[in-house]
């Protein structure tokens, strides 16, 4: 809890880094009607994929700094030498990252969905799957961020590492909203999205902790 409170305090001190992913997400979605078509019926068909791709790219923008500042000021060494497992510290940072990136994206999704012509009846489902999906993005992204934390320009490598792992979340999350749009059952893709999120929360902090220890040893 102490580390989590520290992460929240540091996040408020770096407000510009919090605003950038949200601004990017809004700009991407606002440009789609201009670039594709202003027809709301056609946009509604494309809306699930647009929302998910924009959320994925917005999350990638903030992953590179997940451990970088702690690595630069020696905070990682202190976390690694504490009595608690390093995975707990990683989990606290992941939750903090999701609170300031994934949660705002989820709360903004009804407004952005309306811009793309999504019907109101699918908004609760859209918010739910985006909450699960962005949490998974943060968890999986922590592994990639831990692997490249010692590199000067690891942003591109980080994207190459985590993007293939994001694809199942993208498929099932988009499929759930698309099924709801077509009045079909969305239970299966929703459950798959939830299962991936639970698996990621349980496993990725330990993998990221191991990667951080390797970086510290180097």
Structure, described:
The chain has 218 residues and is an all-alpha fold. It has one domain. The chain has helices spanning 2-13, 15-35, 40-63, 68-73, 75-80, 86-100, 102-115, 123-147, 155-181, 187-217. The radius of gyration is 18 Å and the shape is elongated. The model has no long low-confidence stretch (mean pLDDT 84). Required for the export of heme to the periplasm for the biogenesis of c-type cytochromes. The chain crosses the membrane at residues 18-37, 43-66, 86-107, 127-149, 156-181, 187-212. It is found in: Cell inner membrane. It comes from Saccharospirillum mangrovi. It is a multi-pass membrane protein.
The radius of gyration over CA amounts to 18 Å
What does the overall shape look like? elongated
Secondary structural class: mainly alpha
Oligomeric description of these chains: single chain
Number of domains: 1
How can the largest sheet be summarized? none
Helix content: over 70%
Q: β content, as a range? A: under 5%
Number of strand elements: 0
List low-confidence stretches.
Answer: none
Report, as a whole number of angstroms, the end-to-end distance: 29 Å
